[in-house]
Amino acid sequence: MKKILLIFSAILFVNISAQKKSKDYSDILKSKNIYEINAFLRDAHPDDPRRSVLKPRVMEMMKDYIKNAKPGDTRVKQMQDWLAMLRRRPSTKISFEELNANIRKKQIAKYQKELQAGQSAIVYTPSNPQNVYIAPTASAPSVKTAAIPDTEASEFNMLMAENPVEHKNKTVKILNSLFDNDPNAKECIVMIENKSDCNIIVRIEGIGITKYRLPVPAHGDNSIVVQKGDYLFTSIVCGAQYASQKTIQKPLMVALGSSSKK
C-alpha cells in the first residue's frame, strides 16, 4: 500500500510541476501581442472557446502588421506564412512529419535547380587562407575584439571547389536519397544548416575508416549522403568546438551556430 501511495504521490508531483512550468494564458483574451496569441493557439486544447475569439483577432493583427511594415522587414514573410496556415487550419502548429516534408521539398528544389544549371547555383568565392573571425566579447557584444584565425580556410576552399562532374554526381546522389523513402536503404541524407558568421567543416566519423567531411558556408547549408550507423559529429564554429554523437537511421538535419548580427 505504501508503495502505491508513493508512486501516486510521485505522479501527482510531476503533474503539478508540469502545470507550473506551462505558460499561463489566463489573461490571453486581453493580449495584443501577435506572438503570444499565436503561441496560445498552438498550445490550447482544440475545444477551448477562446480560440473563436483569438484566431480572427490575430489574423487581423497580422494583416495590419504586413500592411504597415517597413521595406525589408524580415518578419513580413513569417506573418504571410502564418496567415496562409491559419486560413486552412486551427493554428500554425505543424507536426514533425510536416516539418520534415517541408525541408525535403526545399532541398529537392534546391538540388534540382543546381542540376538543371549544370553547376552549383551558388557561386562560391574562396576566402583568404589567413582570414580571421573577429569575435565579440561578453562585456562588449557589439564590439569586435578577439581575432580567431580560420585555420581550416584552405581545407574549406578545397572541399568547396568541386569540378562539374563531381558536383553533378553528388547532386544526383543527394536527389536520389531525398526521393527514396525505403526504410531498408543502406544510406540516407544528412543536412547541416550553418547559422553562424563563419564557414565551417563538419567532420562525420563512423566506425573504422568511415569518415566524411562536409563544408558548410556561413549562413548557408549543405548536404551529404552517408551510410546508416553511429557517428561522431565535430566542427569548429567561429572558434568554438562542437562535438555530438548521433545515430543515423533516417534523414537528419543539424543546425549549428548562431549569428552575431542583430
Summarize the structure.
With 262 residues, the protein is α+β, with helices and mostly antiparallel strands. Helices cover 40% and strands 24% of the residues.
Give a written overview of the molecule.
By secondary structure, the chain is of the alpha+beta class. It has two domains: 2-93, no CATH class; 98-256, Immunoglobulins (Immunoglobulin-like, Sandwich), CATH 2.60.40.10. Helix content is 40%, strand content 24%. It has seven helices and nine strands, in the order αααααββααβββββββ. The strands form three sheets. It has a four-stranded antiparallel β-sheet with strand order 5-4-7-8, with helices on one face. A three-stranded mixed β-sheet has the order 6-3-9, with helices on one face. Helix 2 (34-43) packs antiparallel against helix 3 (51-68) and helix 5 (96-117) packs antiparallel against helix 7.
- Using only C-alpha atoms, the radius of gyration works out to 23 Å
Spatial sequence of strands, sheet with the most strands = 5-4-7-8
* Anisotropy-based shape: elongated
SSE string, helices as H and strands as E: HHHHHEEHHEEEEEEE
Which oligomeric form is depicted?
A: single chain
Within the CATH hierarchy, at the fold level, what is the topology of the largest domain? Immunoglobulin-like
- Largest sheet, described in full? 4 strands, antiparallel
CATH-defined superfamily of the largest domain: Immunoglobulins
Mean pLDDT: 77
Beta-strand content estimate: 15-25%
Structural class category? alpha+beta
CATH architectural label of the largest domain: Sandwich
Residue stretches low in confidence (pLDDT < 50, at least 5 long) are: 1-21, 142-147
